[in-house]
Design a protein that fits this description.
Blueprint lengths: L21 E3 L6 E3 H7 L5 H6 L3 H9 L4 E2 L6 E2 L38 E3 L2 E3 L20 H8 L3 H14 L8 H4 L1 H7 L3 H14 L1 H10 L5 H5 L5 H43 L3 H11 L4 H24 L1
């Protein structure tokens, strides 16, 4: 990796990456893209020449005021950044989620509350913002203080993912529960459209397997009598629908957090647009977000009703 990666060429203002052809001024050390330097045919960083400074000294002075340095690409990020805005790498080595500087490699036999680890981070469990500036905007309508009010349980996990999504635009992250029960995850997070859509889609994909089961149980009806469930073609259909169900689980596992992120932004924006009182806004955001075990039970009832309806139709058609 080039030591200039993450810095900018002062002629074109483009950030250097590992594959760039870089040349430096022999007097002050200012880096340039080779094409940019050849175009000017001289070093344009006259201020450094006048002050008799080197580019590295000047960068150090600026970087000391800039915030956290990424160990992967050397870019200095904002003070409250938890992932690098250039390469997306976690700023693990530079993050401190507590009120005191902690050494993550040292044991803490005294049980100090600040020596708690979450996904490799040291953080203060009493800091519900996990070291992020609560007034930092996610978009023009929502800040991280609103996000904390909306998320409710498991806040550190979602804040880290939402911060990364905001700064990198990446939509993919792992939500393991969705590998098994995506419809109930969405219901628990009050995402009814996603929950019902998942239940209906999986109920439709259940039809071939249901036909096969009814034929095996010798339930007499037009469907099972007219379809050769032992045929290679029907077996392939059953396999394809099973793969499709697994595909739904994989896709929701990868994109559920992003869907929740978009759901959160939309809900908070709607509440803020319709409420002016700050206390009422906060209360509505908290009520709209969070989790609900009761909604899981409702989703389970809907799924059982959908599967029951599919089975009844296939038996009585």
């Amino acid at each position: 990796m080039s030591r200039f990666t993450g810095s900018e060429c002062i002629i074109c203002n483009e950030t250097f990456n590992d594959n760039d052809d870089i040349v430096v001024c022999p007097e002050c050390g200012t880096p340039y893209h080779r094409e940019c330097y050849l175009k000017e045919n001289k070093c344009v960083n006259t201020k450094l020449h006048e002050e008799n400074k080197s580019w590295s000294q000047n960068q150090d002075e600026q970087n000391n005021k800039a915030g956290k340095k990424c160990s992967h690409c050397n870019l200095y990020n904002k003070e409250h950044a938890i992932i690098c805005e250039n390469c997306g790498e976690p700023l693990v080595d530079n993050l401190n989620f507590g009120n005191e500087k902690q050494n993550m490699n040292n044991a803490n036999p005294s049980g100090n509350k600040y020596n708690n680890n979450f996904a490799g981070f040291n953080f203060d469990p009493d800091d519900k913002y996990c070291g992020i500036d609560p007034e930092e905007a996610i978009n023009e309508d929502v800040n991280f203080s609103d996000a904390v009010d909306f998320i409710g349980s498991n806040t550190p996990y979602y804040l880290i993912n939402f911060k990364r999504m905001k700064e990198t635009g990446k939509k993919i992250s792992l939500n393991i529960i969705c590998i098994f029960l995506p419809q109930f995850y969405f219901a628990n997070r009050k995402m009814w459209l996603a929950s019902i859509a998942t239940i209906l889609l999986m109920s439709i994909l259940y039809v071939p397997s249901c036909i096969y089961t009814l034929a095996y149980l010798e339930e007499s009806n037009i469907i099972t009598n007219s379809i050769d469930v032992q045929s290679r073609a029907f077996e392939m259909i059953v396999q394809l629908t099973n793969y499709a169900m697994m595909g739904i689980r994989v896709i929701t596992c990868l994109f559920a957090n992003w869907l929740y992120y978009r759901h959160m932004l939309k809900k908070i924006k709607t509440i803020k647009n319709n409420t002016t009182d700050k206390e009422q806004t906060k209360a509505k955001i908290q009520k709209s977000g969070g989790t609900s075990f009761f909604f899981i039970l409702v989703a389970l009832a809907i799924q059982m009703a959908a599967i029951g309806a599919v089975t009844w139709i296939l038996i009585n058609i």
